Amino acid sequence: MGGRLRNVTLHIRASVFQTPNRHEFEYLDDVVIAVDAGEISSITPAAHFEGRIDVTLEANTVLIPGLIDLHIHAPQWPQLGTGYDVPLDEWLFEYTFPIEAKCADTAYAQEVWGDMVPALLANGTTTAVYYGSVHVAATTALAETCIRHGQRAWVGRTAMDHPEGTPDYYRDESAEVGLAASRESIDAITALDDPHSLVAPIITPRFIPACTDELLEGLAKLAAETGYLIQTHCSENDWEHGYVLDRHGVSDTTSLDRIGLLRESTVLAHGCLLGDDDLALIAERGAGVAHCPLSNVYFGDAVFPTRRALDAGVRVGLGTDIAGGPSASLIAQAARAVDVSRHLENGVDQRLPASERGVDNSRIDATTAFYLATLGGAEVLDAPLGLLAPGRQFDAVAVSMAGIDTLPGHDTTSRRFERLVRLGGRRDIGAVWVAGRQVR
Fold first, then answer.
1. Which residues contact 106 (CB under 8 A, 6 or more apart)?
2. CB–CB of 345/361 below 8 Å?
């Protein structure tokens, strides 16, 4: 990302809700957070702090770490909440590819980005991992928009050249052309004026059905050469998972690994059909999964086994999968992650005996779900985010509890936190900071 810009030290007085690990809720009551050059330098109990306070949050407002969305298709923003009546493969060709192709008009793309990025910040999304379109200019404009509005982002030009997995009006002309365009996109993004070091490129093969082996192998070499992160889809649903088995004779995970695309901090979207061997390989490589619980309801054909993946040592965060999931809120995704884990554990077919209906030990709680939306996502990206602690970036969101607390003053702190995860949303979010700068 670009060179660092020195900021004046900022002192914020607040109470903090956060999860330092998947099992633990932490409440920091009335502390002063010192921020220098976008980084937290100290956290001190307010009663022991001597000095200037720049910002004091109201008593019924809490500070949480910035939310990290690991999986967003930026060109699909205009179709958010629509078109969920067909299977994934039909959805792509009928709805999605046509709207993504419109980004050939850079002015149109800039209009979309200019609406989307502020809306995501308003939802508390301080970090986003974006799929752009196939167009270099539009993808560069996306990175520029993130910088202008102050959102931290990994931005990737979507590479896709397979003549059977993509329409003729929306694809790279060849593997050679696609690889050259991805190089051009990396160069364009890294050349941007980014004084707060907010944006980085990410190498983005859409998924195996959309890419020839030549393009996949070229992008793997590009990743090895440049060191940039990779994002792609993996074992998303029966169609996509089965396609890879038919074409390569192995699972997505093994195929990506053999090609060289399964690397440290590779972001694998969905993973609904990952088996135990796949999870072990992902953990061994240090890659991670963007769990998209609401999108998976519509297109996943199965419930991602979040608890089993975490127990296997896999890094897991959350994604909205805009527009595969009809909500831009990471807090909503956290709540849905809990819900679908209960569906997996309890089962959904009432015709089966209770003992045969679900998968034991699958449920997660609100603490784990919030961890996925914050520190879990940071760990997938191997970035100093997701937790308000010294040495980490000050990406933070102020959340008013006024509309969340059902009877203020008559509940425990841990139950208020659980209620935030289940009931919170955009209406409750106030100020947002990224790298120490207030961006909303």
1. 135, 137, 138, 141
2. yes
pLDDT at 2: 39
Of the residues 381, 399, 416, which one is the last residue of a structural domain?
381
Average pLDDT (193-213) is: 98
Q: What is the pLDDT of residue 8?
A: 56
Cβ atoms 302, 340 nearer than 8 A:
no
DSSP state for residue 208 in the 8-state scheme: G
Helices (H) and strands (E) in the chain, counts: 16, 18
pLDDT digits (tens, 9 = 90+) for 360-413: 999 999 999 999 999 999 999 999 999 999 999 999 999 999 999 988 778 899
Q: Is 276 a domain residue?
A: yes
CA 211, 186, 373, 402 torsion-angle sign: negative
CATH number at residue 61: 2.30.40.10
> 280 by DSSP, 3-state: which?
helix
Q: What is the pTM of this model?
A: 0.97
Instruction: Give all strands (DSSP E) within 125-284, no chain letters.
Output: 125-131, 152-156, 158-159, 199-201, 204-205, 231-234, 267-270
The residues, ordered by sequence, that sit 6+ positions from 61 with a Cβ below 8 Å of its Cβ are 14, 398, 399, 400, 401, 430
DSSP helix, strand, coil percent of the chain (3-state; round to 5) = 40, 20, 35
